[in-house]
Amino acid sequence: MPIEHARLSARFPEIPAGRGHYESFYLKACHPSEPLGLWIRYTVHKQPGALPTGSVWFTRFSADGPIAVKVTVPDVSVAPGMAVVIGAHGHMGDGFLAGDVPGASWDLRFDGSEEPLRHLPREWMYKAPIPRTKLTSPYPDITVSGRVVAAGEEFVLDGWRGMIGHNWGAEHAERWIWLHGTDFATDPSAWFDVAIGRIRVGGITLPWVANGVLCLDGVRHRLGGLERIAATQIRELPDGCAAVLPGKGVKVWVRVSAPEERFAEWVYEDPSGGEHHVLNCSIAAMELQVEGASPVKLSTTYGAAYELGTRPATGGHPEGGLARG
């Protein structure tokens, strides 16, 4: 279904000069049957009292491991019809994104009819100082088409499933997990999008809080929330995680994993200092066991994304080392 109205809107032009800020627009897309996927990010990083810089991050995932490239420039802006423009290296708007960095280029279009997903369950949370990270999926389920060249190899996307996400804030969570899944064998229309985080307040790291949705047969089942912290269970590892995520009338058991060599690793910097080490594999396997009125089991071989963000260093370094931003 064609994109008809704007959903992608940058926050950084409105941030006061003395305040720190980071912001990210990103695409995840997976081949329908092979271990091949994309993770493309357009980010803005602004330290307090400084002008913003922009970065374009390109990652192609495959069975042989990731190809990861990042370019940072001081030229970052918005433009008519575009949510963000990172110099001459990349731009994104509703329905399209393109970029050109050393060793990679892309020109992609996306379509989707799903309404945006706002992970935080209450609107006031997007205006409150805590949580410091605000997360949405303006397009939680899309099809992506176009052309990509990476490391001299050209390939064509023809209706790959994926998503477009947007987050922003003054500081990353102390620890976080992001999970996204499509291309489930038993229900191709289903999708899963959940963010799980631990924040630090007054020197204390609070328990895991999950927020997100499992969509089945066009019905969204909201998972997690502050009221379900006690029933939320998380076991995270560098190559996957297991979780129990309660929701209203449902409970979902999650398993996601990928070989360690298929993960890319980056360093994300906070505007006020400090950093997080981040592992991401966007061609992971996922299994969901849904308990509710109609029990359901879903699985995808390569259609899931698993991202783990932590303060300490994590294992597994892609070729070329760590990217920062």
List the helices and strands and how they pair.
Elements: E1 21-30, E2 36-46, E3 53-62, E4 67-73, E5 76-79, E6 82-86, E7 90-93, E8 96-101, E9 104-111, E10 117-118, E11 133-150, E12 153-169, E13 175-181, E14 191-198, E15 200-201, E16 204-205, E17 209-216, E18 219-224, E19 233-237, E20 240-246, E21 251-257, E22 264-269, E23 275-291, E24 296-310, E25 323-324
Parallel strand pairs: 22-25
Antiparallel strand pairs: 1-2, 1-12, 2-3, 3-4, 5-6, 6-7, 7-8, 8-9, 9-11, 10-11, 11-12, 13-14, 13-24, 14-17, 15-16, 17-18, 19-20, 20-21, 21-23, 22-23, 23-24
Description:
There is one protein chain. The protein is mostly beta strands and 325 residues long. It has one domain (21-314). It has no helices and 25 strands. It has strands at 21-30, 36-46, 53-62, 67-73, 76-79, 82-86, 90-93, 96-101, 104-111, 117-118, 133-150, 153-169, 175-181, 191-198, 200-201, 204-205, 209-216, 219-224, 233-237, 240-246, 251-257, 264-269, 275-291, 296-310, 323-324. The strands form three sheets. Strands 1, 2, 3, 4, 5, 6, 7, 8, 9, 10, 11 and 12 form a twelve-stranded antiparallel sheet that branches. A hairpin with a 2-residue loop joins strand 8 and strand 9. The chain is globular, with a radius of gyration of 18 Å.
